[in-house]
Amino acid sequence: MKFYKSVIQTMKDTTWPDRKKAALGIKAVVVTSILFTIFFAIVDYVVQEILQLFV
């Protein structure tokens, strides 16, 4: 029972970001994901081309 009371109290103490901050966070995640996707696609292409030289 103590655990559940602690969880409820923690949820009451939690502050959530407002709409503007949440949107900013979502945009940051999307942009970062796109940049990582592009980076890894380029690395994959370069590694593929290097391996093709040895085959």
Task: Give structural notes.
The chain has 2 helices and no strands. By secondary structure, the protein is mainly α. It has a domain at 17-54. The termini are far apart. The model has no long low-confidence stretch (mean pLDDT 95).
Kindly summarize this structure in a few lines.
By secondary structure, this protein is mainly α. Helix content is 87%, strand content 0%.
User: What fraction of residues sit in β-strands?
Assistant: under 5%
Average residue pLDDT: 95
**Element string (H = helix, E = strand):** HH
Alpha carbon gyration radius: 22 Å
The main sheet comes to: none
Shape: elongated
Uncertain regions spanning at least 5 consecutive residues = none
Give the SSE map:
Elements lengths: L1 H12 L5 H36 L1
Descriptive terms for the model:
mainly alpha, 2 helices
